[in-house]
Each structure stands twice: as structure tokens, then as C-alpha cells.
Amino acid sequence: AAKLAGGNMWRFFAAEMGATSGEVVNLERDLRNAITQQEFIINYQPQFDLRSGALLGAEALLRWKRPDLGLVYPNLFLSLAEETGLILPINEWVINETCRQISTWEKQGVELRVGLNISSIQFRRRTIFQTVSNAIAEAGINPKSLDLELTEGILLRDVDDTIAQLDALRGLGVTLSLDDFGTGYSSLSYIQKFPLDRLKVDRSFIQRLAENKNDLAIVRTIIDLGHILKLSVLAEGVETSAQLALLQAEGCDEGQGFLLGKALPPERFLKEFYCQGTQVSLLNSKRTVR
Ligand code: C2E
Ligand code: MG
Ligand code: MG
Ligand code: MG
Q: What spacing in Å lies between the alpha carbon of 199 and ligand 3's midpoint?
């Protein structure tokens, strides 16, 4: 979404949210109160191994449950959260809450890796290490369960400082993914400087994979590049079985998307994708237990 001047922001927001002219939406004030009012929730979208079909984990996706306007998706409030710095307490809440959820799952014998979306502001303010290490310690979880999703924007900062922060995070035992890969400005040779574990191919390249030869060539190149750099490659936004078949034929390691499963609250996620400690396979269309 385009960046909007503060004055227009709430009107844009209100219109997007279907608010009527009588309703006054003060986005910044409401966003400030949303944590203490317990209005944020996290939904989990499954991620699968495209070779075995096994469930690998989930991406934690933030939603704002507003009493007046219903469920609000992150793209509508993230730019304001970043401009105001509110993204710091919000993402800290997401990280703590997700670690608590992982701890609950661990106690049930459920082992899943959970992807967390990290803001470049957490790197700029150098808060990310403390936030993640505190959350892991407080929840008492296995750090291997956390996968931090970074955007190419963080790679455009001071390179040495970014690498130092990434090394420290990896020292905790968490893994690192580069989100929305292909949409930013980082060159292919540039990314090898950074200690990464996974590339997440942006949804825009997957969308027309079956129709557009160029997109297929780009995805093939990203998969090859990832494998040369010893990174796992995950395709985002898999919506059709034709896309899934092509990704499997090209040797893409992992997948996520509406075809495989939408984001759900934690209890429903477990019921839908994980049965009695046995992982549910995406390769069986009926989602029968392996
Ligand atoms: P993202 O990290 O690229 O997350 C994937 C987005 O694509 C999610 O949108 C997901 O619901 C959507 N998606 C997944 N599969 C499909 C598909 O097959 N088709 C289509 N059309 N969409 C699909 P969502 O949840 O609205 O999140 C949007 C963005 O907001 C995320 O993009 C991420 O950048 C950001 N975000 C989400 N949660 C957080 C958070 O806790 N903190 C921060 N800083 N950012 C977050
Ligand atoms: Mg993400
Ligand atoms: Mg993404
Ligand atoms: Mg994306």
C-alpha cells in the first residue's frame, strides 16, 4: 500500500475497513491501545515439505480483532506501526505470544517450526536479539522452533552491523529466512554475505508460474541459486495444483499457500493439520494420516 500522509491515513483506513462516515477511526490511538486491550491475535499458516508432503511448521501471521470493525489484516496498519515506532512493542508481543504457543505445543508433544515476521526497525534499533532471547528463555522453548523471516530491506543497512546481529541471533539456535525474495534490490551475489538458512520465493513469481515462461525461469533460477548457497527454498502463495506440480518438478523444497492451507487460530491449526502426534500429508488430497 502506498504511504499516506498522517492526516489522510485514518480516512483511508476507515474506508478500507468499511467504516461508515459516522464512525471515527483514530488509527494511531487505537493501535497504541490494541496490545493492552488484547485485540491482537495470531493465526498460523502451514508450511510443508514438498518432497515428503510432511508438515514442517507454520508462519505466525498477525491479525487485529477490532470490536467495532472486525478482523483487520496487517497490511492496513503495518506502515503506520513502522512510522510511529509502535511496531517495536507490537512485534515484541507477537514474538512472546508465539513462543508461549510453541511452549504449549511442546508440552503436547507437538514439534513445529514457526516463522516470525521481523521488522527492519528491530534491527535499526538493535532490539531484536534481546527480544528474541528473552522470549525463548521465558517460554523455555527449543530455539530451533523459531524461524525469523527477514525482508531484503534489512540487508540494505550497514552490512557489518546487520551480519553481527544475524550471527548473534543464529548463535541462539534460531534459523533465518529471507522473505518475499525477488521483490527487493539485493543482488544474487549480495545475499551470500548473510548467514541465512532459507529463501522464501515471493508469491508474485508463483502466481503465473503455469502460464508465464519468464516466471518459471525466474523461480528455477532462485531454486538453483538457493541450492548452490546451501539454502532451503520455500515457495509462497501456492494456490493451484499446477503450481504445486511445477514446484515439485523443479526441486523446490518447501511450500505454503491457500492450496495447502490458510492461516488458522492455533487450536484449529492443530486439528486441521496435525493429528494425534502424526503429521498430516499434503500429498494425500483427503489429508489422511501417513
Ligand atoms: P508475508 O510475510 O509475505 O506473509 C504471507 C502473506 O501472504 C500473508 O498475508 C498470507 O495470508 C498471504 N498468503 C499466504 N498464502 C497465500 C496464497 O496462496 N495466496 C494469497 N493471495 N495470499 C497468500 P497477511 O497475513 O495479510 O500478511 C501480510 C504481510 O504482513 C506479511 O507478508 C508480513 O510481511 C506482514 N506481517 C504479518 N504478520 C506480521 C507480524 O507479526 N509482524 C510484522 N512486522 N509483519 C507481519
Ligand atoms: Mg513472512
Ligand atoms: Mg512472504
Ligand atoms: Mg509475500
A: 10
The 10s digit of each residue's pLDDT in 49-78 is: 999 999 999 999 999 999 888 999 999 999
pTM of the model: 0.92
Say if residues 127 and 156 touch (Cβ distance below 8 Å). Answer: no
- Give the Å distances, CA to CA, from 236 to 31, 47, 125, 130, 233: 28, 9, 29, 29, 10
Inter-residue contact 139 to 102 (CB < 8 Å): yes
Closest ligand 1 atom to Cα of 119:
44
Q: pLDDT per residue over 218-265, tens digit each?
A: 999 999 999 999 999 999 999 999 999 999 999 999 999 999 999 999
> Ligand 1 within 6 A of 177 CB?
no
Q: Return d(Cα 274, Cα 73) in angstroms, integer.
A: 25
The dihedrals phi and psi of 23, each to the nearest 5 degrees, come to: -85, 130
H helices, E strands: number in the chain: 11, 11
- In contact, 255 and 244? CB cutoff 8 Å: yes
Q: Are 90 and 72 in contact (CB under 8 A)?
A: no
> How far is ligand 3, taken at its centre, from the CA of residue 176, in Å?
13
Evaluate: CB of 74 within 6 angstroms of ligand 1: yes
Tell me which of 74-83, 181-190, 217-226 is least confident: 181-190
Any idea which ligand is nearest the CA of 237?
Answer: 1
